[in-house]
Specification:
NE0471 N-terminal domain-like; 3 domains; 4-stranded antiparallel sheet; 15 helices; 12 strands; about 40% helix
Length: about 300
């Protein structure tokens, strides 16, 4: 997949999967053109921001490429990188404004040899084979377990678990999944599964204002919930989880949140793997909601 049309009101098309140059065309007719490595260095996630401080990220290789792209609602793009980083969510406004002033869009890059280079294969260091252990796969692609459970019911509960030393082929054989190559391709695209489950604070606010019918579930510990929670949220304990799985209609939309959006992604994948059609995880979690509320 080289091109992707997005639902965002401003972003029209993004090109650059498995290439060294990324081009974003905007509805206004303008475009933003960046080196993939520079976009990776400008990643706005909290982990990269803390490592980078006010400077660039020199540890990022010039050869890094985007191996997965998926829209996050209508406001952002999640990019999975060939160096294994998958938590970067790039708001469209951030991308359209030269990544917060860190970069300078350069359309002349489209005429460079970098842009003309053919799409790259998966780098050898990140390649998955049927003999690759599950431990190695999850180190390379942290989102893979969530994607595997949603699509093939692998690894999300006790009945479909695996040992770290199990090979992918062994796991597929145990779960009666005949096409190991299809599973490998899903692992490479695992970041897009996470992106589809993301719901921004802005989108949650819109859902609430529109009076949408959905369940808001807090997956944190009881002491975290007691210290502060979102209005209308229920604490997801084991009893409620079992009730939802057994008795709730599968078309009931679920929105889950935790402190920063990691635990809720795991739980959202669990519900999706059990057949719930609309399951969302609040991007940035309770901390993102608190930060936004403080700005209003």
């Amino acid at each position: 997949m080289a091109d992707r049309t997005l639902a965002d009101p401003q972003a029209v098309e993004i090109e650059g999967l498995n290439r060294r140059i990324v081009r974003i065309r905007w509805r206004s007719g303008e475009q933003s053109v960046y080196r993939a490595a520079d976009l990776r260095r400008a990643c706005p996630c909290a982990t990269c921001h803390d490592k980078r401080g006010d400077g660039p990220s020199p540890e990022v290789s010039d050869g890094v490429m985007a191996v997965g792209m998926a829209p996050v609602g209508r406001y952002a793009l999640q990019i999975s990188w060939s160096d294994g980083h998958t938590s970067g969510i790039y708001p469209f406004r951030f991308l359209s404004e030269n990544c917060g002033g860190r970069l300078q869009s350069d359309p002349s890059l489209l005429e460079s040899p970098e842009a003309a280079a053919p799409a790259a294969e998966v780098p050898e260091a990140r390649r998955v084979t049927p003999e690759t252990s599950m431990e190695s796969i999850l180190e390379l692609y942290p989102a893979a377990q969530r994607a595997l459970f949603q699509r093939f019911h692998i690894g999300g509960c006790q009945s479909c678990g695996f040992e770290p030393h199990d090979s992918l082929a062994e796991v597929c054989r145990k779960r009666n999944v005949p096409d190991v190559e299809q599973v490998i391709q899903l692992i490479y695209a695992a970041g897009s599964f996470d992106a589809r489950m993301q719901l921004s604070v802005e989108e949650l606010t819109t859902w609430q204002a529109e009076g949408r019918d959905f369940a808001l579930l807090d997956v944190r510990e009881p002491h975290e919930y007691s210290a502060g929670s979102l209005a209308g949220a229920r604490l997801l304990d084991v009893s409620l989880q079992d009730e939802i799985k057994a008795n709730w209609p599968k078309d009931k939309p679920l929105v889950l949140y935790c402190a920063r959006g990691v635990r809720s992604l795991d739980k959202a994948a669990w519900f999706a793997g059990h057949g719930f059609k609309t399951v969302k995880s609040l991007s940035g979690g309770y901390h993102a909601w608190r930060a936004q509320a403080g700005q209003q």
